[in-house]
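Project channel, design review

CF: Before we commit to the Chelativorans salis constructs, I'd like one complete example in the thread so the newer folks can see what an input/output pair looks like. Taking Fumarylacetoacetate hydrolase family protein.
RD: sounds good, go ahead.
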Amino acid sequence: MNIQGAATFVIEPTAIPAIPVAGSEKLFPVHRVYCVGRNYAAHAVEMGHDPDKEPPFFFQKNPDNLDTSGAFPYPPASNDVHYEIEMMVALKNGGRDIPVERALDCVYGYGVALDMTRRDLQGKAKDMGRPWEVGKAFESSAPCTALVPAATAGHPSEGAIWLDLNGDRRQTGDLNQMIWKVPEMISYLSGLFTLAPGDIILSGTPAGVGAVERGDVLKGHIEGIGDLEVRVV
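CF: and here is what came back for Fumarylacetoacetate hydrolase family protein:
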């Protein structure tokens, strides 16, 4: 059920999750957050998988997991929390069964994000054949930058993506190393879900993921999009 216009609720609804837009006072409202798993071959290998044998697969975070505050609160119930630097793709429209050649028409803009993961809880879920949300969809688990509109950034298909932990380079890659490119991700997802304006896609991470501790400083960069700095608190 979609609510339009004035409505009376039995409790006060929570605020609409939103991301700032670079160079604008307006906000981008977030509908859903889709994350593609193991989209860089080297990362798939480091996680113990063969990238040549897998179709794309997706999991979700919650819209309010996105956080532009610059602080990542170390989450409860875990002692092994990992960083994963990713390109964030924001959709301005959607639909079902979107052709690859029309997929970029759906993109509003891009940003830099981290897919923070409670790796120990994710591992237990995997071992038991259970969903990953406990390891992926916790509070502030997607630190991110403001969005850069595609009208400004274009549609980056290559360029450096890297992450430093306390000044040491830990992840290094190039957007052209993505197994499933942005148009393919959008098209594939639209065969599984009805994509909508406000949807976010986190497009996978290069190799080199690892654990963080309180006090760590993470600095990420994607060429042509921007820089992200996050402190673990």
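RD: helpful, thanks. Residues 18-232 form a domain with the Fumarylacetoacetate hydrolase; domain 2 fold (CATH 3.90.850.10).
CF: The chain has five helices and 18 strands.
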